[in-house]
Amino acid sequence: MIQYNPKSWWGLIFKFHRSDTFRVLAPAMLTVALYTGLVAYAYEARLVPAFQGTTLVHSLLGFVISLLLVFRTNTAYERWWEGRRHWGALVNASRNLALKLDAALPAEHASRKVFAGLISDYAAVLCEHLRDIPIKRRDPHISHAPNAVAAALFREFDRLTHSGDVSALQALTMNPELTAFSDICGACERIRKTPIPYGYSLFIKKFIFAYIVTMPLCLVHDFGYWVVALTTFEFYVLVSLEVIAEEVENPFGRDANDLPTNEIAATIAANMREILAPGTDLEA
User: Fold this and answer.
1) What secondary structure does DSSP assign to the chain, as a single string?
2) Could you tell me how far CA 92 lies from the centroid of its own chain?
3) What does the pLDDT look like over 129-158, one tens digit per residue?
4) What's residue 279's pLDDT?
5) Tens-digit pLDDT profile for residues 159-189
6) What digits encode the pLDDT tens for the residues 193-252?
């Protein structure tokens, strides 16, 4: 995820990064400019007629497209924000469970480091699971690594309750945090595995294509060769919104605008070391 200062207007306007839509769409924009230039040349040479009097119709179609793109962008951002809320809930559940374990277990209890490692592992494993990255350090036969780590958490917790190190009342207070891990994983999987319906996405792309292709024919009479710049800019604006929506609707990948899940997982690991296993290195 890109960190930036939202108040730096001039710095943001003239800043380009590797995933900037201008870079991504540059080849397509060049194609649109060439096509529009050919239409303008053909019109000026009187090889083809312009559709005069259709500017109003095209303006109405542009309004319809803007409504569709607003809905598309809002839907994609809602998925992004929902993913961020679930990862925030994972941070809270991890901290709350660690704090309760810290109060329940003696300072030198061996399970403190075990829980610190498992809770840290869950965040790291969930991050890789949502990106379909194989988990190298674990059994290759495990198809769902977060479930494997959650199962280890429950087994260790069950062992503590049976040994009497954790009372029944303490176990009852910790259960919501333990079950929250799988709930958060399921919610994130729902976001990742349920994209925007194919027909809806395809319709927007076709609508934008038809709108851009016909724009030079409708506007060349009024703008002449300036229609090249106008059409190219219109293409850039409309398609950029669709490209950004496609990127943020799956917020768990490695794109520039995706959630900083690696950083969140590292924060959880640091919290676990501080609360449950101070002075230890969980990676060792």
Assistant:
1) -----TT-HHHHHT---TT-HHHHHHHHHHHHHHHHHHHHHHHHTTSS---TT-HHHHHHHHHHHHHHHHHHHHHHHHHHHHHHHHHHHHHHHHHHHHHHHHHHS-TT-HHHHHHHHHHHHHHHHHHHHTTT---TTS-TT-S-HHHHHHHHHHHHHHHHHHHTSS-HHHHHHHHHHHHHHHHHHHHHHHHHH-PSPHHHHHHHHHHHHHHHHHHHHHHHHHHTTHHHHHHHHHHHHHHHHHHHHHHHTSTTSSSTTS--HHHHHHHHHHHHHHHTSTT--TT-
2) 20
3) 998 776 555 556 788 899 999 999 999 999
4) 57
5) 999 998 888 898 899 999 999 999 999 999 9
6) 988 888 888 888 888 998 998 888 888 888 888 999 999 999 999 998 888 888 888 899
Q: Is the distance from CB of 73 to CB of 248 less than 8 angstroms?
A: no
Task: Using a cut of 0.85, tell me whether the model's pTM lies above it.
Answer: no
